[in-house]
Write a structure and sequence with these properties.
single chain, about 290 residues, alpha+beta, Alpha-Beta Plaits, four-stranded antiparallel sheet
């Protein structure tokens, strides 16, 4: 890849990471923190320390990450940690700025709703950071180190860390309700991350079985402007050869696809499945 293209590619990545970190900082300081809610990750630990000692969370977050980064630098390498270092520095600055802006709770009378809104913003922010292959550091680094030596999935490791941190909030507040609200917020964050990263990318795959496969394939090509592939198959019961039309399309094109096939062959047998990501011409760009 020419050098100028690499430069553009990384410039867009860092812009996306920055936007995601802004969303995260606003959600955390403007909505989650005022309700006394603990999140997962290192920010959750920093919040616990601030709630119990009054030490500003951005200092705990930054210096703890510095220690983790020094340990991880030797194990994981600078290439893996470059965007993580950027994320840690920028998020520390954004949290400090957000602390100055949001001095009063935005939704003081609705702590649960405030937590849910904050969870959505934080989840969307984290998803944007992840989609650019970035990281906010903290427990991400710990899990990445463990994952290198132990056969533990990244998602399971993060879930275990977050759950443990949230449950530890009982020792600060002595209130089970805070834990329940925090778990709800964590669920909202997780769902939002999934929706932002995968939800809008969802495409559908069709397997179409019909004697009029040629007509259907041409109609898909010229009316829906989608490419399709013909596979050779054999009916297990009849033993007759059959052609199977395979199509990948956007989720929004599903109804048009069914109407088109029904118009050509009402007896066609169709299988539709959801695929998380389709990359290439006409869909998402291939990312490394």
């Amino acid at each position: 890849m020419p050098r100028r293209y690499l430069k553009d590619f990384y410039w867009k990545d860092y812009l996306l990471i920055t936007v995601g970190l802004v969303l995260y900082a606003v959600g955390l300081i403007g909505f989650i923190k005022p309700g006394g809610i603990v999140t997962g990750g290192l920010t959750g630990i920093a919040l616990l320390i601030e709630y119990s000692t009054g030490l500003p969370l951005q200092y705990v977050y930054f210096f703890t990450n510095c220690a983790l980064l020094l340990v991880a630098l030797k194990i994981l390498g600078i290439k893996f940690l470059a965007k993580t270092i950027y994320g840690v520095v920028v998020l520390t600055a954004l949290i400090t700025i957000a602390q100055l802006i949001f001095k009063e709770p935005l939704m003081a009378s609705e702590p649960t709703l405030s937590g849910v809104v904050g969870g959505m913003m934080c989840g969307a922010g984290i998803a944007l950071v992840f989609s650019a292959n970035g990281s906010t550091g903290g427990t991400d680094i710990v899990v990445a180190i463990i994952n290198k030596y132990k056969n533990i999935s990244f998602g399971r490791g993060m879930l275990l860390c977050d759950f443990t941190i949230i449950c530890c909030s009982y020792f600060v507040f002595h209130d089970y309700q805070k834990i329940i609200i925090a778990l709800i917020v964590m669920g909202v964050m997780t769902y939002t991350i999934d929706m932002v990263i995968n939800g809008f990318r969802q495409s559908v795959q069709f397997f179409i079985f019909s004697d009029k496969y040629e007509t259907i394939a041409k109609a898909i090509n010229f009316e829906l402007h989608r490419g399709c592939t013909l596979l050779d198959g054999t009916g297990a019961y009849t033993g007759k050869p059959i052609k199977v039309v395979v199509v990948l399309a956007k989720r929004s094109e599903s109804i048009q696809m069914f109407r088109l096939i029904q118009k050509i062959d009402e007896k066609a047998f169709i299988s539709q499945t959801t695929v998380r990501g389709v990359y290439g011409e006409g869909f998402d760009k291939i990312r490394s």
